[in-house]
Amino acid sequence: MKKMLLVGVVGLSALLGGCANTELETSVQNLSNKVDQLAQDVSAVRADQSKIAADVADAKAEAARANQRLDNMATSYKK
Fold it and tell me: For the Lipoprotein leucine-zipper domain, which residue ranges apply (predicted)?
């Protein structure tokens, strides 16, 4: 009788453990997918930031050139 009960408990534990592992694997897979998506989002944001940084550098260079032209115009009007 005790032997049958022991086999039943072990069998039930194995069955429940198998279900728990499936849920765990599903959870891990979902988290992995989320991490992959976040990694892609970070890459996209980095690319956008690099492009914006280049645009800002170009704008600063243009502003410096415009200021230099204005300075040159101002010096030609001195008495």
Answer: 28-79
